[in-house]
Amino acid sequence: MENRAKVVCHMLTTIDGKILIDWDGNEDYEIVGQEYDPILYSYGDVVALGRVTCQDDYEVQSADLTSYQGAVVEYTDQVELPQEGEGILLALDRFGKLGWTETYVIYAGRKLKVVEALTEQVKPEFLAFLKEKGIPYLFAGEKEFDLVLLLKKMKELCKAETVMLCGGAEINAEFMKQDLIDEISLVIGPGVDGTREGLNFVGAKDTAGFPKFYKVKEVRAIGGNGVLLHYTK
Fold it and tell me: Would you state the pLDDT for residue 51?
């Protein structure tokens, strides 16, 4: 692992392991949500999110590439480090779809610079779009993500010792399937979703390679009747 960034999967879940719940108005859940933020940034300052999670959390539409037709660009990494005191939002955007309108976002109360993780199948028009917007990007894989390569580049080019993987369920599962989640940090809120269909914090379409096993590193009560469960390999 010395040649790549460490990965901590940090998620807020219900008691029954769901990551989506209608908890608005529950005072305890509000407090647990506030506890989530400082725990997250105790691990590092790079947050990784899947494309769908980016779209849902920030209402990012698909990029309009009409004005970039015929663009000629080089398929090389374009890296720009954040300013001191800021972090990175690593957007895992395999096909190149996220039409960011800002170069920074706020996640868990902190300003993060958007960096796109891409595969080489993205259209040149999308790279031209990112360049015009001033959004850095990294290539990691030809058609599918090479997650080991991505983590190596995060350490080498972005100076990231740790990447906090914060969903969604499918991208969490992909990292876990490849044994790339070094620690699991679950902030558990005091609620039960109760549905059979709800998303768990890991949700693989192909469960080959599962189950995975971890060792307890820390268990402690937090505000709002929540619990932190921290596992390591």
Answer: 97
